[in-house]
Structures are given as structure tokens and as C-alpha cells.
Amino acid sequence: MDFTEVPVSDQGKGKKKKNKKTKKQKVSEEGEARGDDIDTKDGVKMERTEPVTVFPPTFSVSEIKNKQRRHLMFMKLKQDKRKQKIMLKKKKKKEREALGDKAPPKEVPKTIENQRVYDETTVDPDDEEVKFDEETDEFAAYFNRLTNPKVLITTSDRPRGRTVRFCEQLATVIPNAHVYYRRGLALKRIIPQCIARDFTYLMVINEDRKMPNGLVLCHLPDGPTAHFKVSSVRLRKEIKRRGKDPTAHHPEVILNNFSTRLGHSIGRLFAALFPQDPHFVGRQVATFHNQRDFIFFRFHRYIFKNEKKVGIRELGPRFTLKLRSLQKGTFDSKFGEYEWVLKRHEMDSCRRKFQL
Amino acid sequence: MSVMDAWLGAETGLLKGVSVSRKQAVNFSSSSCLDRAQEVRALSWAGPGETELLVGSADGLVRTFSAEKGTFTSSRRCGEPHEGCFSGLHALGSALVTCTEKGAVRVWKEHSDVPVTEVRAGEHVHRMRQSPVAPHRVATGGKETPVKIWDLENPDKPMFTAKNLRDTWLDLRQPHWVRDMAFIPGTDRLVSCTGYHQVHVYDPSSPQRRPVLEAVFGEYPLTALSLPVDGHTVAVANTQGQMALLDLRKGLVCGVLKGASGSVRALQCHMTLPLIASCGLDRHLRIHSLQDRKLQHKVYLKSRLNCLLFSSNDPNAEAKPVKVKEEEEEEDEVWDKMESVHEDRGAHEEDCVHEDRGAHEEDCVHEDRGAHEEDCVHEDRGAHEEDCVHEDDCVHEDRGMHKEEKVQYTKGKNKRKTDSKTGQKKTKKQKN
């Protein structure tokens, strides 16, 4: 009887979740009302005339105007859903245990990497044409051990403290790297001078509002130029539980997950930054991990405790890169020919399709 | 083969024939090993019937490729590599017209090593095109070299030299960089596109030597140009992969063709149908429809592509029953050839008909053996579903072992999902 005090207007608002409750109320009311026709006529009349009211299916919690009530309704909705989910899980678990060995295999959860749209440009390791293409491209000299990498790191004009420190730390991570102050020089004029002094790479870190946000990596004699967006830069002192500073040993390079043709080109671009030396000295490793078109750079020192266990310590800066364009030839953003350009409207429309 | 819808030249020296309707791509090479020096720089039909192709490569050789036989039949030396690569190559009756990047336009008669006529067309010629109406008229243009129309029968002076645009409002000379041009059929006019993202229309019959119409598109150099059949639009593409249709009456952009992600090196419109093919540094061949500007076909070809030739076949024409018949015919052919091939120790694919006939031209450079570096594409048997998108490229060695190489290929955006599924399945199988 207490329930029936709820006025009619309120029922309109509280319909969805109190559905079950109101239905139950209805049944109980009806039961009571049948018994006490005369007494409860006034209160119950409205409900009696519509004994089996079907609430309009288009009601949703968001139609409740009162914020607190809406919040309450939504919380109740969530709790109910959670309960259902837990019940379902328990049931499944019981069934699985009951079946024992005959149970069907566990379903693999869907992730975006699982659902990735198959890219037709994925490189097949046996493909002769692609092999030939890679053997004779601009990095051939490096991969045939004819040149050693020599990197020039500079920034955009007038860099601020964070960018300068980032450049210095990068120079410790990449062997044979030199940092030069930009002083407002034009890149197209710097490039011939670099070539004359035997540099193989030019790295320009672009800065915006005191934070590094872009990277132009130009392979020097005539090589491709890649332009990246840099985000999430962590300098050494911001990394927790880090090891001591990196030494001058050449690090190993790990390139993860560069599977398409474009990914291969970028992977080779990164690999050619570091000198090739199969006898690893110094247990340092630089990792370029590609996931969902973002490239994560980490620098670690590792130690093998026994054959199966490795301990790692992160040293060095950490940043993420996203490729914006790959241009054939040295830096010439206006008149150069682009091999690949990120076009957001066309390429970012499908969440399951990645380019690298 | 007459079945091929498009021929493409790649930077690795391969000539690729693509059949869109049968979803195949075949590689042809004139030597058994790939060589960057044979990078294909110019492609053109050797005659009015589309049976032979002229392939100009970076080392100065012009090879003739027979589409029927599927092999390179002859080659001739038309210039030294140090003079620059070919920027134009056309057939003139039985003779050849070539143009190098340093500006030398030469006419070569058959069977002669020395050019008959030579014209100096400027310091740097980026492109030379032949008029479809009058084959002895060619147009040239390049960086700081204005557009010139030459009559090869009177090679002393150009018939028409374009004048540069007027100086800017600061009285500075406007820089000039012609990248591609085309003759508008039906009239005397010429359309050209520049590296400063302008499109100019010139009219030699009018007294003014400056462009009659100037249109601007984008902010990046325009690399390729093509005229569709309807005559009042022009399709242009730039180094960022933006392709657009411009209206030639007013100079406005009609619409944009989406899809290319890299610099477009060659564009060509189909002769009769409203289709346009484009290829470029992103290693794909794309065919768009001009009416609704949608992508119809996209083929991944593993090398960067330099030039393109569209044949007059209808890429959307063929239907399944024909496919089956052709397969049977070709299989019969294959069986027939098997025996003859054994004597000649060679290839037993349908596309490879190497015969000794080819060798009677003086500059025949390749041997019969050489022509078998072909990735032959089987129309695979199993794949008789209409939406079967994957073909198997077979690279066979002389022993007849087939190594499967796949050319992935999507037909329009809608089919991508199904393709991906089947693609994934297939790769798993192959790996297993």
C-alpha cells in the first residue's frame, strides 16, 4: 500500500527500472484491489483501468530530467547488468567444469590488433621483387657495410630547455651523433654541407610551445625523408626506477611489427641510424615497437640472469612517433615527391586498418 | 596479350601487365635478373593496333615488347645514359621519336643507329608529347623551358613557342616549370600543367602566345595530366597524391578523385569509357570512374611505378563463363606447348612464347632464356567464386617448380571486408 502512494506523474518518469518493481506492485495491487474494491478505489483506479500496462519501449534513462534520479536509475541499470554478467559467467564456468576435457576451447577476445584489416601490401619474406627493391634502394650502402652512420641532430630555431635536453639525451643514445645549434639556417642549405662532411642522417626536432612535437629524419646522400609527429616525451629524470646513464657502447636495435611495405621502409630508416656490429658489446638495446601505426621508442639495459630470465632497466629517453609523410629525396617539402602522405579523412576512417 | 587492360613500367625495370577483369598482374622482364639501370621511363604503343609496346629505359635502350607473344622482341640504343633519361617516346610510322631530359629530341629510323633529325628543345625537357592528330608534331616543355610545338618535318624552328606569364605586381619574373602537356583533340590547343600548381591552355592559332586560360589546383607541383573523352575537362594529379578534374571552360575544379597516398607519376584516361587510371610512388594502380569519381579497382604492384598505358579493352566487361572458356583454351594451349617447349628448354606458361623468331633484329639483346623471368599468373582453378580476389602468381623456375607468389588485389572499397577475411585464411594456409 505504501507503494501506491507514488503519484502517477512519477510513474511516468520512473518507468524503466521500476518496471519489474512496478509490475510486481501492479500484480500485488491488483490482488489487493480485487479484494478491497471499495476502499482503494480512488488510489488504484488509475492503475486498474490499465491492468496490464505495457510501458512504451522507447523509454530510456536519459529522458528523466532530474539529475539525481537519473543518476540513481542509471546506477541501478548498471548494477543489474553487472549482476547478469556475473551470473552468466558463473554459469559458463560451471558448465565448463562439468564438461571437463570435452569443454569447447576458450574464445579469444577480440582486440583491435586481432581485427586488423588484412593489408595487401604486407611483405612476404619470399618475395623476389620486394627483395630486389630493398637491396637496391637508398639504404643499400648501409646494409652492405659500406658506410657508417653519422647523425646530425638539430632543432627548429630557438629551442627551449626541454628540447635541448632531449637532443642531448638522444645524442647519448645514438652513437656517433652530434648536436648542433640551429641558428636560423635553412635546411636546404645545411644538407649539401652535411653531405660534404660525410653525415648520413639529419635529424631535426621541431618544437612547439617549449615541447618537442615533430621529427624530420632525412637520410643524407639522396635518401628518403620521413616526417613524424612526436608525443609523450619522457626525459631521463622523469623515468621511474631507471638505471644509470647509457654508456658509449653501440646498442642493439629491435624493430617490432613493421609488416607492410611502408613499414619496411620506415624500419630500414631506423635501422640505418645505428652502426652494424654483430658482436654485441654493452648490454644496451634500443627498441622501436610499432603498434597501431604508433612507433614507441624505448632504451633499455638488459642482463641475463639465467637462460630463461632477463632483467631489464629502462635508461634513456622515451617517446612515441607517428609517421606523417615519407618523401622521396632529401628534404624538400614544397617540390619533393611524396611516397606516402597521411591523409586523415581518408585513412583514419576505418579503425581496423593500419598503414605501417 | 590483348587481354591486358593496362601496362605499367616500374622502377625496378619490370614491365607489368594488369588484367583488371581477370584480376591478374604479370611481370615481364627482358633479362633474368632485375636491374635498376633498366628502370622504365617511357612507355608507348608502337603502332595504331595495340599489339606492340615501346619501352624506354634509363640506360638509353628502347625495347619493343610484343603484347601478343609476351616477350621483348627487339631493342635499340637511342642515346647514352649520361644524356639523361627518356622524357618522351613515341612511334612515328615506322620510326621512333625520343626525347631526353637534356633536351635532345631525336627521330630514329628503323635499323639505324644515328638519328635522322635532331632538335635542341631547351636545357631541360621534362616531357614530350605527340599530337594524336598529326604524328609529326610534338610538344616539349621543362624547367625554365617554355612549351614549344615542333614540326618534325621542319625541325629548325618551333611552330609555336609559348611566352611566360606576365611579371607579378612586383615586376618579378614568374618562374616557369612545365611538367606535362597534352593536345586537346578536335582543336589546335594544348593544355599543360606546371610545377607551380598551374594549368595552362595555349592556343597556337590565336595571336597571343601567353596562355589562354590559367587554372590553379592545390599547393604542390602537378605531375601528370590527362584528357578524358568528353573534351572539356582535364584530370591532373600532384605530388601529394591529390587528383582532380578541372573544367577547361572556366578553370574551376569539378571534383577530386580520392585514394592515392603518394605522388602520382602517370595518369591516363581510357579511350572510350569514362575511366581513369593512375599509378605512382605508392606502388598501386588505381582505376577511378569519371562519372561518380569513385575508386573502382586498386591493384598492389610491388615496385614504384613510373609510367602507364591503358589499352582500349573494357576492364569491367568480362564475365565468368568467358573466364572458364578461356581457361580451358589456355590450358589446351599450355598442353600443346608443353612438347614444343621441352625442345627449347623453357617456359611452359601461357604467356611465355619464346621463339627464335624474335632474334633476327640486329639489336636483339635478350636471349630466349632471359624471357622467362616471368611471374606467370595462373587463373586459378579453384577460385571460381565471383568475388574471388586473390590470384596466385607463379614464379616458375626452369624445372617447372612453382613458387607461389600472391598479388593482392581489391576491387572497390565495398569488397575489402570479404577480401580481408579470405586473405587471412589464405595466408594462414600458406604459412601452414
Automatic annotation (TrEMBL), chain A:
Biological process per Gene Ontology, one example term: maturation of LSU-rRNA
Domain (Brix): residue spans on this chain: 149-332
Basic residues: bias regions: 14-25, 84-94
A molecular-function term among this protein's GO annotations: rRNA primary transcript binding
Region span, Disordered: 1-51, 84-107
Keyword Mitochondrion: no
Biased composition, class Basic and acidic residues, residue ranges: 26-50, 95-107
Entry keyword Lyase: no
Alphabetical keyword list: Ribosome biogenesis, rRNA processing
InterPro entries (alphabetical): Brix, IMP4/RPF1
Protein origin, superkingdom: Eukaryota
Function: May be required for ribosome biogenesis.
Protein name as it appears in the record: Ribosome production factor 1
